[in-house]
Amino acid sequence: MSTLAAERQEKQVLELEKKFWDAMRAKDASGTEALTDDGCIIVGAQGVSSIDGKTMAKLTRDGQWLLQQYAFNDARVRMLSDDVAIVAYRVTEKVVVDGKTLPIEANDSSVWVKRSGEWRCALHTESLAGDPYGRDRTSTTTT
Description:
Elements: H1 3-25, H2 29-35, E1 36-44, E2 47-51, H3 53-62, E3 65-81, E4 84-97, E5 100-115, E6 118-128
Parallel strand pairs: 1-6
Antiparallel strand pairs: 1-2, 3-4, 4-5, 5-6
Helix pairs in contact: 1-2, 2-3
């Protein structure tokens, strides 16, 4: 694959990631459903789970949160093949939860797979940014 073709494909994958985030911001359940691979693995502070498109649609529609805005920084895309891509980035978010607007800084990654000509998210991770040992979220009491 030529460098230009690879750059185009990388840009397409990053645009897919943004499309997914835009669908979450708009609470567009059909949009997130269409972009979620069956058996998509989700990893974050809440643990590890596996969901399908219909579950993602329900989480988008019924979730008790509102994504007000987001921005990607330092995005990197790596094409593993014509049908598999990794995207990783730092994200800043403003999310309304329990009536409070929370600023979030995190490091996210996704694995995208192309099935029957359509890209689907097969894995998504989110790690809250901060001290790698969690010292910024624990008490300073020593034992």
